[in-house]
Amino acid sequence: MKSTILILFLVCFLVVLLVNYTSALHNLFNEIDVNRDGKVSLDEFTHDMEKNAFDNLDKNKDGFITPIEWSGVDLIEEKEKAQEVFQAIDKKANKRITYPDFTNYADKYSNIEEAFMILDKNKDGSLSPDEVTLRPLFRLFTIRY
Ligand SMILES: [Ca+2]
Ligand SMILES: [Ca+2]
Ligand SMILES: [Ca+2]
What we know:
Elements: H1 2-32, H2 42-57, H3 67-70, H4 82-89, H5 99-108, H6 112-119
Helix pairs in contact: 2-5
């Protein structure tokens, strides 16, 4: 008798876990699909990746990334070049990266397009809910001189 209750309890627990997991995925998709047409375009995907990376870096949420916030950065291919990349993004050289500065750089030197192509399993140029299983890792590349 006791074990039946235990099994029932476990089954309920698993169901709750599964529902939570699916709804988390669903939320992620809806968050990225800004125009709610049921698919994620490269533009929507790019915007989401950039916004997410910027928000994670801008720890105090004042709209700028400062060198101190940048010092904990782990999204650069070659970590030892983090300082160089900061200077390359900081176009006005005022030790502050704004969101437009950041997107200008990320549009050219990041793995966003590559990540999009990997997620787009059926290669139709947009992502369906089943293709968006996670938010991929965002990476910035170093400019080569
Ligand atoms: Ca869309
Ligand atoms: Ca900040
Ligand atoms: Ca697709």
